[in-house]
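Example 3.2
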Amino acid sequence: MTVRICVFTEPHRGADYDDQLRFVRLAEDGGFEGFFRADHYQAMGADPGLPGPTDAWLTLGALARETSRIRLGTLVTSATFRLPGPLAVMVAQVDRMSGGRVELGIGAGWYEREHTSYGIPFPAVGERFDRLEEQLAVITGLWRTPVGESFSHRGDHYRLVEAPALPKPVQVPGPPIIVGGRGPKRTPELAARYADEFNMPFKSVAETAQAYQRVAEACDRTGRAEPVCHRWCSRPASWSRSAAPTRRRSAGRPHCTSRAPCHRRIR
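Structure, written as tokens:
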């Protein structure tokens, strides 16, 4: 089994665009498979994370033009941050800017504080999952609609009427979708229906294995074939000019991820 190593960073903890550009260039030159970043608008805890947050998709679009091989994506975008139609356009555009190297990690969202700080609605968990499910339906529907045809969607939270479903991403039928989350019920079902990959963040080996099993069982229930997905696991790593920040940042926070091909195909 081949294991491919990606890097994962949390810029909301204190990394501006120039920091991320240096990091992704080092990762690409070092032969890493991909560069994935968190999608948060606020640091967690007392540390303000100076100089402040950077928007994930704006940053990835810029990094796409400064790199040539490494894959780029989010772990994970919160479905509460952006409407699904504009998000489908953003990701497709960055995929075109990168020549087809983008992956969309998406989840229901969980960090209430950043929503309150920036005036972003934060509904109850059930509604957040309802919105995530609709977002996945809209995003994949827009990407898969043939050129020249339109896409419509009428749901409880989003309504699209004869959308032109443009631009099209380079990757067909669209960039790989990573469904991430710890939920034991709806997360596996959504992964089975929509995801190319499943991400279980920051849990023990035993808990991660249980989560993988739940996704496999959900695949069976939905009648999907076995996934050619990549299952993710994470290990702590950190880089700094001095030892103290390295110890502080790496403690309990995974920054390197490995991905190995599954025996099951989700979609």
